[in-house]
Amino acid sequence: MLISDSHEFVFVHIRKAAGTSMKEILAPWSLPRPAGWWKRILSRAGLQKDYHQLVLRAHEPIRTAETCMPADRFERYFKFTFVRNPWDRLVSEYEFLRQTPAHGRHRKVVAMAHFQEFVEFQARRKDAYQLNLLTDANGKICLDFIGRFEQLQQDFAEVCRRIGLDAKPLRHLKNSHRGDYHDYFTPELARSVAKTWGEEIEAFGYRFEAS
Q: Is the pLDDT of residue 211 over 60?
């Protein structure tokens, strides 16, 4: 997550939705990450109530900003994120983890016998669901703008317009070698994802498009 006082925005970074590319442009206008192990401990324990001193994780839920920011600022700041087709996103994360030896989950993923095992593994992980990062304490989406990975440059240009920055082309960072996402799914596995991730599929209007 990034928070900017100068341009009054809160950016919720969802995994494998081009967040790293956007952060490259947004970070210079965002609050610096506080240094010190004690601040990290207070932040992880939920005891740091001043968002200027909060050590934000990369994929922090919007509820953290809602809790730690003054209510008037949270309401006023432009809150945005980018989401991605859940079937495509699963494939993207799968191949990224397989191809990134330095990642903490690399060994676990490469030891899996097949892609279906990875999907079942992700289904048990709370942070594998985009919707979990975007809802308030009442379960309602509390963002002002939800961009789409599928129309990334167009939607990011709109974000830049709304926060007063010049829109710049996004670089493709953390890319991985992979095929068309349809090729990873059997019909049964595609239906299983539709059921497991059904809430966010319905919320964002995604479907398993024909290849």
A: no
Instruction: For 200, list phi and psi in degrees, rounded to 5.
Output: -80, -30
Map tokens 């010190």 to a residue. Answer: 36
Q: Supply the pLDDT for residue 173.
A: 66
Report helix angle 115-123 to 86-98, nearest 10: 110
Percent of the chain whose pLDDT exceeds 70: 98
Separation of alpha carbons 80 and 38, rounded Å: 29
Phi and psi at residue 149, to the nearest 5°: -55, -35
Token pair listed for 25: 């442009």
Q: What type of residue sits at position 168?
A: K
Instruction: Retrieve residue 128's tokens.
Output: 């594998």
**CATH numbers and ranges of domains, the chain:** 2-204 (3.40.50.300)
Question: Quick one: which H or E segment has residue 4?
Answer: strand 2-4
What are the residues whose beta carbons fall under 8 Å from the beta carbon of 28, sequence distance 6 or more? none
Q: Would you call 116 helix, strand, or coil by DSSP?
A: helix
